[in-house]
Write a structure and sequence with these properties.
heterotrimer, A mainly alpha (223), B alpha+beta (248), C alpha+beta (670), B: 248 residues, Fumarate Reductase Iron-sulfur Protein, Chain B, domain 2, 2 domains, five-stranded mixed beta sheet, 11% strand, C: 670 residues, alpha+beta, FAD/NAD(P)-binding domain, Flavocytochrome C3, Chain A, domain 1, Methane Monooxygenase Hydroxylase, Chain G, domain 1, 3 domains, five-stranded antiparallel beta sheet, 18 helices
Chain lengths: 223, 248, 670
């Protein structure tokens, strides 16, 4: 059991587990964001709950941060190891003949997502942490109203930021198009029962990022 | 047809190699790819040059010896075949064909297009067998019925010819399709159960020691595999390995 | 030296059991001080190496490929025979024995064949225990199919890849011993001579094919399992590297070479397409279970097909000549291989060949599609199915049985065999002749054993389908491990064999000189040039049908080619590197000697038997008119040749064959 991360299969497994976690997180993040399209108040209420409930803040948030960092670091470690496994590269390699662009470029879609996360942290997460834990304002109020919806709308007024978000979500879709079914394969789920999962994975990989793009555009053009 | 060949030439394992251009003429479309290579070599021998060394033996797609990366693909552009079964009708007059050895750190080049694939042998020595002595007194072959489904699936895994196309095609030079096939064959049969946990642990450990990369599930191996070994075998190996590891 | 086959006394049923009960054994503590060299790692060599190592001997195994599992046994498609009688169709040890002796045209040694039939059932048990995934039926029990020349279903199979699966089984057993350190594996090594010390085989000289280094290896016994010599014909279904060198080297050092003229020409191979062809591809004999072989009845149709004016499917039933069914109503398309091959040649020689070279006949599955299709329609309750539907249903069944072979055919020929009949023609496939061995599988060099296809074996003058795998594994798993122990029991005090003796030195010197000759010779012609020339003589004059005139010419022509070879051969590169041309040169040099002995043997054997058909010896009238005529009065013997320098000077030793348990009869498949 110890040293499982030293084996290729162990690393695949760990990569897949962190991916599952991140995909579930993505789903709930999307669900909450989607509320902002229908009702500012519900969005505010849920956001405040998520931002102040201790289980989320002190248990899930660190786990999430660990998951994100682990997934990225492991991704880069794998890439370096895999590059070492071929010391001389082919003069001519026709990768598109046998595999998808997505599967061969997870490191680049991943890097794009990492860049996005940095932007996203600067936009939302750091100000949020600053307000709550540095300034010490846990009320979630601004001018007597919940500030969440307002902040969201405000961020999406800058067309450059919206464009960056849209591009990042395209990369996320590409990453998920391979990543979803890949994670199942890595944990050993590939049989007649999981064939349906592949279709579901494709839908997930397209609908979720598309949804995020929709939300960003919705707020950009509606306010 | 007339062709230009760009071939990797390398004197021995220590020498530095490079791509060299050759021309061949009057190639029949019914020739196999290796027969085209024979024509080139005959030409080289007759002009006093050293012929291109390449591995080949049965020339009917079963020994797994032939191993060329042709125009960027293991065993060339056709599917479900080895290099020796590739025919020149897949090419056109005037084509330029790039021919390289399998590329993987674990498969060092011996000469020209010949690589050392004994890493595969060491992986199998680590556990790719069922420990039964030859006695003539093993139980009757029909005393353990095995469902047709399991037997067929084991057979599908067992058809692997160990050519290394999976490693050559994989962007990570991962050997998981090969090892997965070998693990699966035994994992699917009742005879293989007794040693299953040790087998998968030891084989994976050896695979990692040999310096093959990590699988990232691109599926290139499955597409290029001349025997159509399925990715399910990798998934099965993952399950077997994880189960063996967590059981301790 | 008089030939002593050392067949034990007693009734045929008890010989092997009594033998095993009375031989000397080596105790386990002594086995670990005894070394055995095994050359070749196919079914025979691989299974022998694994079993000897399991017993405790130190085994050194040699393969010219990069792995034991690539030996050409891997290419065997159809199956392996065993007298299990799982189908309850009347099979028994005796019947397998009888079929094999009859199939071999009464030119094999009864006691060996009976032993083979006896251990056949153990092979299946052993292989299943190893995890060989044989085909099974829906009840989970092992499935069987039928092969040519027999009336029962006793062939076990793993799709069309039985040889591969059995070899992987033997290889896995080897791996277990390699991991234990009991087998030391020498991949990419070629044996270039045997070393005889004080009259006993004590080692070999081998070349490391990567570095070119010449190595000395010593042992208490040497086992050669290096396969057959079919590549003497240049074109055959053998692997490109298959060669006779190991067998020929031991012959030159004192092992007699038996029945070289017994060669199997397999009837169902893909026809040659041009001069550039490097090898021929076999289509499993199992196809004859469902395919019907024919050529057009009328010459006009033959011409029309060759010129592309007609397609084979355009010919109606009565315009076709199903010549095997016509000539052999009892066995039809399932006559033994030699009979089927000769019949194809007869039709093609008469001008009825259906491709541009005139050397092809049709193997047609149309009636199988129809038969299976109608059966399926009944099973699925389809009322009044259309012909198209029947064909579709039937094709699905044929695909399940032979899909991989059909795909292989399509890849090579670029024609869809589901739509148009396959074209086939006979090709050299297996050599029944080989190094002479006694009942112990020992050659005439004490301590030097020969197993599998490399020995003159149990197949007589013709081998039945699915028997080669059986023999290779029987020799390696169940026979040699006993017989070699009896010999080695006298070697327990010998101690390690030194490689510093003058015998090793001389053998190494000889090998080195020959290699140096090749790389230094300023010739003008490639090795393949000579190999192709030899192959053409062999095929034209010592092929499917032979006569005294042709064979005499062949001997002279081969000698001339050999002399030219030693003057004009050109081998690029050096001796101290990987040099495939150098490897080929050594092998072709040996084929050039073997070929001449082959022709000499064929010339001496003025009878027709099995794969050896002498035009002078055919039935002239009666119901068997045109069939091969055996001559038991003058030729019921094994011809074992002793090397005396030039192949033409080889001395014949006869081992008379006695048939006590089987009556000698004309082999009739009518």
């Amino acid at each position: 059991m110890s040293g499982i991360l030293n084996s290729t299969i162990g690393r695949k497994f760990a990569m897949a587990l962190s991916a599952f976690f991140l995909m579930i997180f993505l789903l709930q993040h999307f669900a909450i964001n989607l509320l902002s399209v229908f009702s500012a108040d519900t969005f505010n209420d849920v956001s405040h709950f998520m931002g102040t409930f201790w289980v989320i803040q002190y248990v899930m948030q660190p786990v999430l941060i660990f998951g994100v960092i682990f997934h990225f670091i492991m991704g880069f470690v794998l890439e370096i190891k895999n590059n070492k496994a071929r010391n001389i590269s082919y003069a001519k390699n026709n990768g598109s003949a046998n595999s998808t662009w997505m599967s061969r470029n997870m490191i680049w879609s991943g890097a794009a997502i990492l860049a996005f996360i940095v932007l996203h942290f600067i936009d939302f997460w750091i100000p949020e942490i600053n307000t709550k834990y540095i300034v010490g304002d846990m009320s979630g109020l601004h001018n007597g109203e919940y500030r969440y919806f307002h902040e969201l709308v405000e961020k999406f007024q800058n067309p450059l930021r919206v464009a960056a978000y849209v591009i990042a979500f395209v990369f996320l879709a590409l990453h998920l198009l391979h990543g979803f079914s890949s994670a199942f394969q890595s944990v050993g789920a590939n049989n007649k029962y999981t064939k349906g999962l592949k279709g579901f994975g494709k839908a997930y990989a397209i609908i979720i990022p598309l949804g995020f793009i929709f939300i960003a555009l919705f707020h950009h053009f509606n306010h | 047809m007339n062709l230009t060949l760009k071939i990797w030439r390398q004197k021995d394992s220590k020498a530095k190699g490079q791509m060299v251009d050759y021309k061949v003429t009057d190639i029949s479309e019914h020739m196999s790819f290796l027969e085209m290579m024979d024509v080139l070599n005959e030409q080289l021998v007759n002009s006093g040059e050293e012929p291109v060394a390449f591995d080949h033996d049965c020339r009917e797609g079963i020994c797994g010896m032939c191993s060329m990366h042709i125009n960027g693909e293991a065993h060339g552009p056709d599917r479900g075949i080895t290099t020796c079964q590739l025919h020149m009708r897949m090419f056109k007059d005037g084509d330029t064909i790039t021919i390289e050895p399998w590329r993987a750190t674990a498969f060092p080049v011996i000469k020209d297009l010949v690589v050392d694939r004994t890493a595969f042998e060491r992986i199998q020595q680590a556990g790719g067998y069922i420990s039964v002595n030859t006695s003539g007194n093993t139980q009757d072959a029909n005393s353990i019925p095995i469902s047709k489904h399991a037997a067929d699936e084991a057979m599908d895994a067992a058809t692997c010819i160990g050519c290394g196309a999976c490693v050559a095609s994989c962007k990570n030079s991962s050997a998981m399709l090969f090892v997965g096939a070998k693990v699966s064959q035994y994992a699917l049969l009742p005879q293989g159960q007794v040693e299953a946990a040790d087998r998968v642990r030891n084989m994976v450990e050896q695979m990692d020691k040999e310096g093959f990369g990590n699988c990232t599930n691109t599926g290139a191996c499955e597409v290029e595999c001349p025997k159509g070994i399925s990715l399910e075998n990798i998934a099965r190996m993952n399950r077997e390995y994880l189960a063996a590891t967590f059981k301790g | 030296m008089a030939l002593d086959s050392k067949v034990p006394k007693g009734s045929i049923k008890d010989k092997w059991t009594d033998y095993k009960n009375n031989i000397n054994l080596v105790n386990p503590a002594n086995k670990r001080h005894i070394d055995v060299i095994v050359v070749g790692t196919g079914l025979a060599g691989g299974s022998a190496a694994a079993t000897l190592a399991e017993l405790g001997y130190n085994v050194k195994a040699f393969a010219y490929q990069d792995s034991p599992r690539r030996a050409h046994s891997i290419a065997a498609q159809g199956g392996i025979n065993a007298a299990k009688n799982y189908q309850g169709d009347g099979d028994s040890t005796y019947r397998l024995f009888y079929d094999t002796v009859k199939g071999g045209d009464y030119r094999s040694r009864e006691a060996n064949v009976y032993r083979l039939a006896e251990v056949s059932a153990n092979i299946i048990d052993q292989c299943v225990a190893q995890g060989v995934p044989f085909a099974r039926d829906y009840g989970g029990l092992l499935d069987n199919r039928s092969f040519g020349g027999v009336l029962v279903s006793r062939t076990f199979y793993a799709k069309g890849q039985t040889g591969q699966q059995l070899l992987l089984g033997a290889y896995s057993a080897m791996n277990r011993q390699i991991a234990r350190g009991k087998i030391e594996m020498f991949n990419r090594h070629e044996m270039l001579d045997v070393v005889v010390v004080d009259g006993k085989a004590r080692g070999i000289i081998a070349r490391n094919l990567i570095t070119g280094e010449i190595e000395r290896h010593s042992a208490h016994a040497v086992v050669v399992g290096s396969g057959g010599y079919g590549n003497v014909y240049f074109l055959s279904t053998n692997a490109m590297g298959s060669n006779a060198t190991a067998a020929w080297k031991i012959h030159k050092k004192g092992a007699y070479f038996a029945n070289p003229c017994y060669t199997q020409i397999h009837p169902t191979c893909i026809p040659r397409s041009g001069d550039y062809q490097s090898k021929l591809t076999l289509m499993s004999e199992s196809l004859r279970n469902d395919g019907r072989i024919w050529v057009p009845k009328n010459m006009e149709d033959v011409m029309a097909i060759r010129e592309g004016r007609k397609k084979p499917t355009d010919l109606s039933e009565d315009e076709r000549d199903y010549y095997l069914e016509r000539r052999y109503p009892a066995f039809g398309n399932l006559v033994p291989r030699d009979v089927a091959s000769r019949a194809a040649k007869e039709r093609c020689d008469a001008g009825y060949g259906v491709n541009a070279t005139g050397e092809a006949v049709y193997l047609d599955f149309a009636s199988a599609f129809e038969r299976y299709g109608k059966e399926q329609a009944k099973i699925h309750n389809i009322q009044n199915p259309s012909p198209a539907k029947i064909k579709e249903l039937g094709q699905a069944i044929v695909e399940a049985k032979y899909g991989n072979l059909f795909q292989m055919y399509e890849k090579i020929v670029d024609q869809n065999p589901y739509e148009t009949p396959m074209m086939i023609y006979p090709a050299v496939h297996y050599t029944m002749g080989g190094v002479w061995v006694d009942y112990n599988l020992m050659t005439t060099i004490p301590g030097c054993y020969c197993i599998g296809e490399a020995n003159f074996s149990d197949h007589g003058a013709n081998r039945l389908g699915a028997s080669a795998l059986m023999q290779g594994l029987a020799d390696g798993y169940f026979v040699l491990p006993y017989t070699i122990g009896d010999y080695l029991s006298s070697d327990i005090r010998t101690g390690a064999i030194s490689t510093d003796s003058k015998e090793f030195e001389e053998a190494e010197k000889e090998v080195t000189e020959r290699i140096n000759f090749f790389v230094n010779n300023k010739g003008t012609k490639s090795v393949d040039y000579f190999h192709k020339k030899l192959g053409k003589v062999m095929w034209d004059k010592a092929g499917m049908s032979r006569n005294a005139k042709g064979l005499t010419e062949a001997m002279a022509e081969i000698k001339a080619i050999r002399e030219e070879f030693w003057k004009e051969v050109s081998v690029p590169g050096t001796a101290d590197e990987m040099n495939p041309e150098l490897e080929k040169a050594g092998r072709v040099a040996d084929f050039l000697e073997l070929g001449e002995l082959f022709a000499k043997d064929a010339l001496m054997r003025a009878e027709s038997c099995g794969g050896h058909f002498r035009e002078e010896s055919a039935e002239l009238d009666g119901p068997q008119k045109g069939e091969a005529k055996r001559n038991d009065k003058d030729f019921a013997f094994v011809a074992a040749w002793e090397y005396k320098g030039e192949p033409a000077d080889a001395v014949l030793h006869k081992e008379e064959l006695e048939f006590k348990d089987i009556e000698l009869k004309q082999r009739s498949y009518k």
